[in-house]
Design a protein that fits this description.
By secondary structure, the protein is an alpha+beta fold. The chain has 4 helices and 7 strands, in the order βββββββαααα. β3 and β4 form a beta hairpin. The longest helix is centred in the C-terminal third of the chain and has 17 residues. It starts with 5 loop residues before the first strand and ends with a helix.
Length: 142
């Protein structure tokens, strides 16, 4: 699973992939609609690889949260992000039991689930292949 180059843009729905950087900002392409946009440098742009979820002890990268969600669902999408706040919170507690309930709001959970479903639908989420014994030996030798 590689979240590199996947962006969330404040005020714009959905996720975008980075196409190029321009003088005044970035050029992005919507993951599902495939429409390209030029986003100014003043826009709130967040790379998914840089986002983390608060836990009671530390922060967990979004990639690890998505991996936990994939273990729970396999090849299925997660619950609907339009579920009630209580359903979203209980679902997130199953996926990430140690998340900080005081700093992670239902709106944050809704975004994470929506992003997961979008990435799942576009084929960006894949479980890493388990390493074979041969690959493990090669890593130890180098």
């Amino acid at each position: 699973m590689n979240l590199e180059g996947i962006l969330a843009i404040g005020g714009k729905p959905g996720l975008y992939s980075l196409v190029a950087q321009s003088r005044g900002g970035v050029i992005v392409e919507h993951l599902t609609e495939k429409k390209r946009l030029s986003i100014g440098a003043q826009a709130q742009v967040s790379a998914l690889q840089d986002i983390a979820i608060f836990t009671w002890d530390d922060e967990i990268p979004l990639k690890e949260v998505f991996e936990s969600m994939m273990k729970k669902h396999g090849n299925d999408a997660a619950i609907s992000p339009k579920s009630s706040a209580k359903e979203l919170e209980s679902y997130f507690a199953e996926v990430l039991p140690e998340y900080d309930t005081e700093r992670v709001y239902p709106s944050d959970i809704k975004k994470v689930i929506s992003w997961f479903n979008t990435l799942h639908g576009t084929g960006h989420l894949t479980m890493p292949e388990p390493e074979t014994e041969e690959e493990k030996k090669e890593e130890k030798e180098s």
